[in-house]
Task: structure prediction
Amino acid sequence: MNEAIFQEIKQKALDDHIPIILDDTLETLKRIFENKKLESILEIGTAVRIFCNMLF
Result:
């Protein structure tokens, strides 16, 4: 995903006081997904949804 788009989505969530995942937690999840070579995950209860394949 384009880093500028990601930052725009993140900033909008912060501006709107929507709880989002912390950066270090996101990095940990990204490493897990890459190591396991996951093709998809199930998101439950997310306020801001971004498709994982767009993050890599």
The mean pLDDT is 78. The two ends are 6 Å apart (CA to CA).
